[in-house]
Amino acid sequence: MVIKMYKRSASTITLVMILTLLITGCTSQASNIGMAKEEENKTVGSDFVVAEVGSYDSADTAVVLSVAEDIGYVTFMNIATGKQYTLSYDGTTYVKDKYDGTMSMSQIEAGDIVDITFLKSKKKLASMQISPKSWEYDNVENYDLGGANKTATIGSNTYSLPDDVVVISNGERTEVMDVVNKDMLTIRGIDHKICSIKVEKGHGYLRLANSQALAGGWIEVGNAVVTQITENMMLTVPEGSYQVMISLGDANTVKDVLIERDKEVVLNVGELDIVQDKVGKVIFSVEPADAVVRIDGEETDISEEVELSYGIHRVELEAEGYESMAKYIQVGSEYASISFTMEKSSDEQTEDTEEDNEQSKDDDAEDEDVQNVTTENQVYIDAPAGVEVYMDGNYMGISPVNFAKTIGSHTIALRKSGYQSKSYTIYLYDDGEDITYSFADLEKEKSGSTNKTTSSKSTRSKSEGSSGTKGYSSNDSSKTGSSHSTVSENSSIENIRVRKK
Predict the structure, then answer these.
(1) In this predicted structure, what is the pLDDT of residue 323?
(2) Burial level of 226, CB count in 10 A (0-12/13-18/19+)?
């Protein structure tokens, strides 16, 4: 009897345990399913779905336009399409250099070319890496952004330059035309295509006051500019500190100036320190030693020191088997030395190749000459109206104005009292057509950006040994044109309009 009761009790306990396990298991499974659905739909705010670190559904190669660290956003431009878009980022976003090293977002700058992954629907940046496919040139000064067929050159290399290339200056996007040939750039690209240009060091302006009596003389601004003086001149000069030397015959003066980006310095040259019969003794060192040297057109014996009057002199060198040279030098001290090393011509080529090279040299010389050819066509500057117009530092008149079309690259500067001066680079071609430019209105001067005026009164150059004479290339000056009024039609480049006639 006891055994039977024990069996019933055991059966009952077993049944209860089985029911308990079944109930518990079902409840646990239902709970797990519910938690999974809840996790799947878990949100932060109302429109952001929490994702695992590094998860993404889209990838792109783009140029960084801006980084807003305070609000956690990065703006990009797609390299292939030119489309712009903005993505958010947070502490889960991976940032790497092109070699997979860790970077912080603060190290990313406008103009960087990056490979990115992101959640497209949520505009959430998952990862960003400096593209391993990209290249970069820092502190570039030897460049030309006006090549034919939308090309540009950096040194001796040629690259394509698309219309939508990203140009960054002072943290803002601008145009290729806003870059002048005295700016220092960082240029980035992929393969043979330039994708971004960043102006690292811009330019300011040096305006000469009371310079009428100095027309035909020379002005040297450090190593940056050397050119003949014309009336009402305003030079576009790279930002930095310079020693400015002005000379006219035996008269010379020296003044220290500070050029700041987009600001103007007025140099009063009305009181020039006159020095009678001032000469410097220059020792020349030329390689090869048997080169023929001409100074100001006259063959000169350089085996001994050469006496030259203070000012600018043209030095020409010729030697068999070497490329000819022509340089301008500035004599500004009692004793100085200067050296020239000529480049050898190749003598290991076949006769045909040599003939080809000679033809190439002739073509190059012709191309160089063409750069300074003044045509019968005209350049018209129509807008903004009522501003002073300068080309390559030379005063052209008050807009609307027109002047002769000179083939080559030129810097157009616009100035008006109370407004910030502005420079543009234009490229003029021998296409037999007139061309009209309508630029954007000048911006009013900001408080604290008042132009500086500097006097050049009685400052003489001192003897500094070999530092008083340097070699330069020349800049040709242009002639003033007459005014002309005409209205430009639509052919927009953002806020700049260009029309050929």
Answers:
(1) 86
(2) buried
